[in-house]
Amino acid sequence: MKVNLVDIAHARSGDKGDTANVGVIALRPEWYPFIAEQLTLDRVREHFRGVITGDVERYELPNLNALNFLLHGALDGGGTLSLKTDAQGKVFSTAMLRMVLDVPDERARALGLPMVTAA
Amino acid sequence: MSSERIVRVASGQGFWGDWLDAPRRQVEGGPVDYLMLDYLAEVTMSILQKQKERDPSMGYARDFIGAMESVLPAVTDRGVKVIANAGGVNPLSCAHAVLDVAEARRVAGNVRVGVVTGDDLLPRLDELLASGHALAHMETGEPLSTVRDRVLSANAYIGSTPIVEALARGANVVVTGRSTDTALTMAPLRYEFGWGTEDWDKLAAGIIAGHIIECGAQCSGGNCLYDWRNIPDLANIGYPIVEAKADGTFTIVKHPNTGGRINVQSVSEQCVYEMGDPHSYITPDVVADFTTIHLAADGENRVKVFGIKGRAATDKLKVSVAYRSGYKAVGTLVYAWPDALEKAQLADRVLRERLENMGLRFDSLLTEFVGVSSTHGPLTVQTGEAPEVQLRVGVRAQDRKTVERFTREIAPLVLNGPPSVTGFAGGRPKVEDIVAYWPALVDKAVVKTMVEVLS
Question: Which end of chain A is more exposed for a tag (fewer CB within 10 A), N or C?
Fold first, then answer.
């Protein structure tokens, strides 16, 4: 079945130069290992393909049930150079939460993950 | 028991432009020992530098003087101390402006202003470059000499030590230039608890306390995604306060009868804000490890923070250089139903063809469709027809004339482009000077901070 990341995590993003950072935090501590396993470097690179021009870095913060991603080349030069509405990367947080995850039904039930409801 | 002594540091300003009423609310809403006000963002210094060039008595955050007026009774009658990096590129003038306010209120005898200087490297820039400090760009590696003739300001991010010295010399208001945001919170804790310069874990705890409250209400329910609908009374939001103990543990709280919400989720969101490598949050005083932060609910609107580890600081300081880097302008038009997006897309194609025909060349030309995809770009999932769309086109170029010519091409589209267009009341887009940011490192040994206490 499919699970919306937005239903199992919250997030905040900010900027450092032309890099946006996105911190993704599990809504329940028991969901953190699942999120950490799903949000691999490759998965996040793929998600932001065509959105950012640089590479992605990934860090784990199990103490906060959180992951931190650095998205390089995300802000059209960043700061005052940027022409983007979101020049400071404030809403890359919810762009990350658009991710939809595939999970075997049994696992989803065991973790109590909320299923995708039809739009 | 001295270990149970609590020192309260309240955050009253998260950036220059934050809520004017917050500083007063913080000193009047309940007990606090220190009021911490953060005014400086990356480009603020260059704005202040321009102001100082026009008027040598300016160059600091004027909002701070209004804030001081509103909290002066708390400072003089109840012993609340104020620490602010409002000094910008002119901390001394800022300090005198504070004393003038105290004088006008006839309480100047009770105000001692500590002034921290030495972060401003602009007067020493050529000397530093000549003696082998390349001040290379931290991301690109380019030496600063490539933009030297366009530099507007250059400031080293300085740490807690000069603030601690000012407090030790009896200052009850401390004004700095480019102190790190986090030092403004850590310094009073270090001073009050007598933490040593190598008490890495405690210093790191003070820095993380600073990180959590440096953006004001962003840790107490503001800009909080978690359960945002149910966060109470944002109109009356309480700014955060650190209740710290000598052992380096602390609790994030807010005054009673205020809005917003402090919980593990709201504090977690702020912990990850603007984070780089969480293992190494590098400051002038200590390298803090964000993977050691532990949060626990401690009653309503209280979050306890503990377990923090730090390690020795590096021998470098970060330098923030601002330099002129060309011009930009952004033009917008609004297209209405039906087929709003299609109309906006056609207008964009027409505009681009005209710019192309004129032979205008831009370093960057960016089109966004606000209401459709300006925030999430290609990740956007289109559901149904957009009832209206704002076409937003931005350009950037080194040459001012090129950008100016672009600004003349927006209005004509109202009459000679696609239909159902409006929203041009603001007139021609404004050409803006771009002041860009150049982060660099410099050897700590070359930056000498100084402290003066005025009364």
Answer: C
Amino acid at B77: D
- Pairwise CA distance, residues B430 & B407, whole Å: 7
Asked whether the bond before B338 is cis by omega within 30 degrees of 0, the reply is yes
B330 to A61: CB separation less than 8 angstroms, yes or no: no
Q: Is A77 left (phi over 0), alpha (psi -120 to 50) or beta?
A: left
Do B42 and B438 meet the contact criterion of CB atoms below 8 Å apart? no
Q: For B97, left (φ over 0), alpha (ψ -120 to 50), or beta?
A: alpha
Angle at B134 between CA B131 and CA B136, to 5 degrees: 170
A83 touches chain B (CB under 8 A): yes
Q: What is the CATH number of domain B322-437?
A: 3.30.70
With b meaning 16 or more CB within 10 Å and e meaning fewer, what string describes B411-424?
A: eebeeebbeebeee
For B147, list phi and psi in degrees, rounded to 5: -125, 15
Dist. CA B137–CA A85, nearest whole Å? 25
A96 min Cα distance to partner chain B (Å):
9
Q: Can you spell out the DSSP letters for B357-372?
A: HTT---SEEEEEEETT
Tell me the HSE value of B429 on the side-chain side, using a 13 A CA sphere. 25
**Average pLDDT per consecutive 10 residues, chain B (455 residues; last block may be shorter):** 82 95 97 97 84 93 96 95 97 97 94 97 96 94 96 96 98 97 98 98 98 98 98 98 98 98 98 98 98 98 98 97 95 97 98 98 97 94 90 98 97 96 86 94 97 96
When computed from its CA atoms, the radius of gyration of chain B, rounded to whole angstroms, is: 25
The answer to whether the CB atoms of B271 and A70 lie below 8 A apart is no
With CB atoms and an 8 Å threshold, state whether B269 touches A10: yes
User: What b/e sequence results for B98-121 when a residue is b if at least 16 CB atoms lie within 10 Å of its CB, and e otherwise?
Assistant: bbebbeeeeebeebbbbbbbbbbb
- Residue whose pair of structure tokens reads 């593990």 in the numeric block: B264
